[in-house]
């Protein structure tokens, strides 16, 4: 009897384990990622320091570039990442939405920027604005999920309006909420049109949209005498912790992909043939395992760059790399990213920019948003796009005031618009020449 009971319990345990693994696979291991982050957040500092740092994050103006590790510590930052990841994951579950390519990219993007500038408190007013827009349009809130996930790139607008201008809290907090709601209300309407400007060749389309909205808020603030001061708080004290995390998630995702699908490399070869132009869904087209493999490859490429150029890892740089990896499901792969990176490196060295500068490093990695240009028009055009991005990107922050965390998405929109027009003209001429011959 006892032997039979042991067998039943053992079989039941295996069955439950299989069910859990199946669910984790369908959710792209996001719940597991949350659990790991939550545990890690209490491994570096006393619990009271972690929660006090979390309070500092919540009340920070969060303007570009605010490294939450620098102002609050690694534990508090990881807790911030974990909580905002959990909130958005539960939102997806509440709306009964599956993890598609764009959704996965949006979730990982949220995680990345939770290291610098994004927290649960400065995102909620923006979500409320989008909810009100959905009500005004009499459309389901769930229809705007992609916009929702990428919308919080403008979250520093909320924090700065609350805590950056020096208003008393009873004025600053309502002011910040109002600004966030207005921005959120505008985002869905504008984002659907900005994609036409760059024709889908800027993967960070919402960043371009947010840059435009931030520009008008920045101009309005200046017009009424409210000066915005951009700041830079960065800490490299936890380089090896972040490096280890980057390496582990990269290698881990590759191992999982290979173990779960022995044909994954064949599927990946087919993925490399795609340009990546918006809107792509690599989970739908190639499967979760292929996306995990791509995720790991982009992570290893970034790790190699960090090693070769001795790039110090901090909150903003690590968050940037994580965001790029997230787009493994939404338009990026090794073949279309490499030409952009080559062009960015050439531009950095020709212009004499400091590759230890956080803003330069971030611009370099985020130039990958132009990957569809290389995918569609070839290596040389991709190199040109990367070179131009490094030139244009620093100018954008002065326009948008540091409220748009996706500043490089703002820059990439203009770069894509210029490059694509020229490239398309040459392609048409080439096509006409081939027809005549």
Sketch the major β-sheet.
none
Tally of DSSP helical segments? 21
Distance between the termini: 85 Å
Radius of gyration: 22 Å
Structural category: mainly alpha
Strand content: under 5%
State the helical fraction: over 70%
| Number of DSSP strand runs | 0
Low-confidence stretches: 5-9, 429-437
Name the overall outline: globular
Arithmetic mean pLDDT? 88
Please write the string of helix (H) and strand (E) elements.
Answer: HHHHHHHHHHHHHHHHHHHHH
Secondary structure topology:
Elements: H1 2-26, H2 30-40, H3 47-58, H4 68-72, H5 74-94, H6 101-113, H7 120-137, H8 145-151, H9 155-163, H10 169-198, H11 205-223, H12 239-260, H13 264-271, H14 282-286, H15 288-308, H16 315-326, H17 334-351, H18 358-366, H19 371-377, H20 379-400, H21 407-436
Detailed description of the structure:
The chain has 21 helices and no strands. By secondary structure, the protein is mainly alpha-helical. The protein is globular. The model is unreliable at 5-9 and 429-437 (pLDDT under 50).
Give structural attributes.
mainly alpha, 74% helix, disordered C terminus, 437 residues, 21 helices
Write a brief caption for the model.
The chain is an all-alpha fold.
